[in-house]
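user:
I keep going back and forth on a fold encoding question. Separate attempts, laid side by side, tell us more than any discussion would. Would you put together a sequence-and-structure record for a protein of your own picking? Write it directly below this note and I will take it from there.

assistant:
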Amino acid sequence: MKTDSRNYGKLAIVALAFTLAFTTPSMANDGGKGDHKSELKFIGNVDNQPVFELNLDNKVEDEYTVIFRDENGNVLFNDTFKGAGLTKKFLLKSDELGDAALKVTVRSKKGNTTEVYSINRSHSYVEETQVNKVK
């Protein structure tokens, strides 16, 4: 009876070892293979015109197409860039755009991925009053 329980214990340990040894993790993003990362951010104004920076953080050389569209779908800018780990800056002429929302599409040819960003602008007026004790 004692030997039967020992055999079941050894069998359970062997089964657990095989289960852990031959299990592979399943990752949602394919483990980072072919993962193209881009980031579009507002970095400031030059002569009251907004400037955006696009970082294409890819270690493999690729061809990227960047398209700026207004809310009606009209193409405002379209260009293709080649390279790995590119950083591009874009100056938008705000007097021509007004407060219209923009869509920025970044397409990777080799990675066959598309990322879309939305730029929404709003203006607000802030008045600040401070009272300080002098004496």
User: Anything to note?
Assistant: Confidence is low (pLDDT under 50) at residues 26-33. The beta strands are 37-46, 49-57, 62-69, 75-83, 86-91, 102-108, 113-119. Residues 35-119 form a domain with the Immunoglobulin-like fold (CATH 2.60.40.10).
